[in-house]
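Give me the fold.
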Amino acid sequence: MKPLHWALLGLFVFLLPVLLLGRHAYVLIHDCLDTEISLVYLLAKRHLAFAYGPGMVVPEVMNGIPRNALRPGLSATMLIYSLVSEPWRAYLVQQALVRLGGLLAMYWLLRGYGLRQPRQRGLAAAVALAWATLPVYSIYGLTVLGQPALLRAALDLRRGRHLGVAYAVCGVFPLWSSFVYVGPFIAVVWGGFLALDVGRRGRAAWASTWRGAAGLGLLLAVYVVVEWPLFYSLLVAKQFVSHRTEFDYQRLVPHGVGVGLHEAARFFLVGQYHASPFFRGVVLLALGLAWRQTSGPARAQLVRRAGALLLVMAGLALFCGFALQLAGAWQHQLPLLTAFNFNRFHFLFSLGWFMVLVLSLRELPLGQPGAARLAYGLVGLQFLVALPLNEEYINNLRLALGRPNPAAPSYAAFVAPKLLGQVRAFIERQTGQAPAAYRVASLGLPPAVAQLNGFYTLDSNQNSYPLPYKHAFRPLIAGELAKSPELETYFDAWGNRCYVEAAELGRHYLIAKQPARTVRHFAFGAAQFKQLDGRYLLAAVRLENPAESHLRLLGVFDDSEAYWRLYLYEVAP
């Protein structure tokens, strides 16, 4: 078989545990299953992908969150979730396609630049496989793993090669990536290199610069079309005032030079969990070995190119390490600092480090058997060091081997459709009401569980929602926030997780049925809950004194497949 075919087979083997497990596979929970999947599912279910009108809402979330507070509809992710009705199936399809796209993107880049020689074809395929198996939030599409295709397009535009394909890549990339995570940062880096090229080569660079600027302009223009609700809100008229205007980094972020340097080192040497993190030690090892193997002009070129990449990333990592502290110092003078996260240059770091790896590997004399084994060994080692941070793969491997992680519920255990079906049926028998007729909130489990089971929730995890709603929700949990300065800061200075809190639980939102947990004193704003049309509390913990919270226990529900045991409480009349 050809090397690319071996890489595709390797990717299939990598995906095999999750494909075999199906709905019993582990799906990333933090900022994925507890947030994004339910929202994409609801948009697809209600056919609201392109419902950008000012009065359009998603009634299942936060008493009708504005539709424009959620992700745009013009994306491959929305298409997949619209075509595949079951959320877990849609997620697995997206996961497989994103990793396949990442592998092909990296291979395409390396066969055009970096590892072009015939004898390097196998190494290019191996690097592409290592890239495609990095930890990834596939719910964000090709935001990270698709970057090699965009880099290949930028390089082709500079060289004047394959222009049609290059412009097509620039036009397609925004359709399956997140603007807020990478769009502005790609623009800054790409624009910076175009300016640097003009500064170095003068008039000789004008033609390539115009082509590059056209590609970048096309990329940004399509992003504007895709993210039109966001840009309309920023530039024309706001549909609502976001809760993000009350972000307070002064309270939220630890301060000090040491803190900033520690964060910078983490960004530089490991990365951030949303952005395909991995320990960079293997890349530095490969660079050191390549430096030893070369001499003269070849060594100078390696040092110049790899050194430039490392210096740029080190500088950006330093900026990222202190960005939130700087935002806290200037947030009142520049409100945009609270509306937008400026430290997301780290989303580009994984590609930068892989380019350093490629620059190093190409200097090893692959014609010599020992050097070839060394090169493939380094790529294999890179694959292995990335695995410990691949939470999804590790937990699915454990599930497939019959040794599940007790703290990592599968999709089926997390969503628990039979358990929530029991609750829904019980309420309907008691009241004759369907879920649309009442509102619920959750304690000890993410609201996404209820959302994925057809309930209408007052609580949710949202990147943006109306500020007045945050103010209306706060009295529900004011008593608990008063008990915990940590929770109070987390809600008041951040507030993305607009959750029912309990100080006795802290910031723990995955309370399993075993061991059973009890909250002794729960200061709940029942009156405000009723004002928001709230009626039922779905709790993964038992309340020892529900009457003091003006709640009464209606029933306890369990299911062998579920991660939770649910206590159903109703606001006392």
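The radius of gyration is 25 Å.
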